[in-house]
Amino acid sequence: MGEHLERLRERLGEIADLSAAASVLGWDQQTYMPPKGAPARALQLATLGRLAHETFISDAMGEALERAGEETADLDPDSDEARLVRRVRQEYEKQRKVPPAWVGEFTRVTSLAHQVWERARAEKDFSLFRSSLEEIVPLRRQYADFFAPYDHVYDPLLDDFERGMKTAEVARIFGELRPQQVELVRAITEAGRAVDDSILHRPFDVDKQREFGMEVVRVLGYDLERGRCDRSAHPFTTGFSIDDVRITTRYDPNFLSDSVFSTIHEAGHAMYDQGIDRAFERTPLASGASYAIHESQSRMWENHVGRSRPFWQHFYPRLQQYFPSSLGDVDLETFYRAVNKVQPSFIRVDADEATYNLHIMLRFELEVGLMEGSVTVADLPEAWNARMQDYLGLTPPDDAKGVLQDVHWSSGLMGYFPTYALGNLVAAQLWEKIRQDIPDLEAQIGRGQFAGLLEWLRENIHRHGAKFEPAELVQRVTGKALTPEPFLRYLRTKFGEIYGL
Ligand code: CO
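Above: the input record for the complex with cobalt (II) ion. Below: its predicted structure, written as tokens.
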């Protein structure tokens, strides 16, 4: 490696250390920190975040980047070195365009808005939150304008989460997906074959849930010598290095699915981060390719693996041993159907596989409308409820079960939601390819063997970290651009069988 690239890597390493330190504080905040530690912790996180940001956008970094760029100019553009320089340059140029004054104002407005949102949601009253959002939306439009010219005002927001993805592309994919998914959900609900999932709401000892969850993720391939699992209100994955990637989960003593599928989901994220090439450590390449690619990994393990029949053929007898009084009288088929019950509902995070994306498409349309100005903040509750009726046949009884349910907008996070649905589509597209490459995949899963699958994911996805752009990665691995067809085929096959369609 040349001396200038070496110097660039040293600078990037220091920034990565600051970010990792902030992540440790953030992890602690959500797991073990006593409640009164919050104000001091907020200052500590702000200081570390500011130091990392200032170092990254400094002139010295620009200088190091330029020298490293010259030094690597003749390398293969797909080499790790050339890709690193390219990735850092993209991010550097992007962050330099955002004035510190805007960042200060945005931070101030969103931290206040978050508290207002919490109260509005508790009181189920959108009107309390309206003026906060009326400050956030113009700030978001200003942000987009730092990146003008753009094809669409929503593009710069989307790009923060899904590099290179365009609003028009998402709109095209969702436009194809939505009517078919709405139709499928309607067919399921009209099939008259209601699935009874009351067995999942029996008593399940929390310590036993934890033991079972840990047993499962260990077998899947989550390396617990390089990871751990703690409890938090909202499950998440965080990493401080490739060799320290942690997850959290939550337990409900009267509902089994929450912990089991959250734990598998987060372990899916964690196995991705644990599988990144060590050569990328302490650089921006040591992360997932994008939010959608990351979510494709968690969703694949949670749904394609964790909600499949072969998976439970292997694990269900074990689960029954953990919970003989609650599940001893329940057969595998009843259990399999229960964990795959489809029912349109109000809350996105509780949605099943067949309805989930509809929640996302609704949010995407409203966000695009807000940015374009075709939807006003005042219109939101009504626009939300109208789409819920169109897509899921439901009208929320109040704003807490409708427009106020998600934290994202109060934090100014617009452009994030689409990645959840795109992640589901990526997972299904990858899954079709994996089934071609590993013809006895289901038999392996039925025997509790996951090494073949994890090996495939390591080789094709994980080790590359953020080296490739998300669209490029999907194309390289599956030979096709992202399309909703594999996902629709997956839903139709699985739920067609369960609901006798
Ligand atoms: Co996730």
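Notes for the reader.
The chain has 21 helices and three strands.
The chain has a mean pLDDT of 97.
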